[in-house]
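lol forgot to send this yesterday, sorry. struct tokens for the thing we talked abt
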């Protein structure tokens, strides 16, 4: 099994939607992956809310990004990964 390259957050790369690449850094609070074609970045926080930046922060946050992968606007915040997949499927269909 391969995981995103993050020191504490374990997320299997096989669970990433097609076209996403690992852009995680050990010093970031969250693991992250970027889709150059959709221009979105997925931030993946710890499963345990007490270990996140703030306890009310959601585990998965999807951002609109520019060509360099820098976050622009928040598109979705959820604790449920299937919601991320549904959102991305809708986004892909509209492009």
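and heres what i got for the seq, position by position
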């Amino acid at each position: 099994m391969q995981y995103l390259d993050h020191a504490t957050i374990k997320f299997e790369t096989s669970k990433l939607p097609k076209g996403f690449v690992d852009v995680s850094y050990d010093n970031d609070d969250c693991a992250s992956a970027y889709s150059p074609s959709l221009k979105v970045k997925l931030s993946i926080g710890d499963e345990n809310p007490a270990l996140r930046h703030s306890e009310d922060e959601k585990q998965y946050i999807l951002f609109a990004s520019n060509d360099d992968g820098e976050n622009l606007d928040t598109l979705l915040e959820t604790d449920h990964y299937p919601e991320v997949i549904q959102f991305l499927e809708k986004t892909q269909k509209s492009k």
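The longest helix spans residues 81-94. anyway ping me if u want another try
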